Amino acid sequence: MTSATLKIVLVIHNNASRKEAKKRCKAKKKQETREQLLKRTLNPSDTTHFVNWRRVKYEELDLYPTIPVDRHKKPTRPPTPQEIKSAYDQVETFHLFKTGRNIVQDPLDKESVIAFIDFIKFEDISSLPSPSIAVLGED
């Protein structure tokens, strides 16, 4: 007598709908993390400003690599016009924060914030309480 065996093959497809579901789940988790960060650090009921989340990475940059420095890390000579132009061209590639509320998250620790940068129109400064204005002028 012969015995018959049944083979079951399980095939899992990584199709487009699964990838989209993963993307949605990841975006939802990121949004929840950001909301928790806002609740811990800022007034969560303040919806007057749109929050720009900024991703940064640390890169050491020497704008004038050809200028020698002394033992106190001071340059031994001023930069030449050509060196100034080269440094200016490097700085031109940077992204400037110009408006709104910008939150810079720590790339190494997603639960912490490096900086809150809030731009306020000059006309709106008079409506702020005076202690906030005093902070702007402190050294």
Automatic annotation (TrEMBL):
<protein>
    <submittedName>
        <fullName>Uncharacterized protein</fullName>
    </submittedName>
</protein>
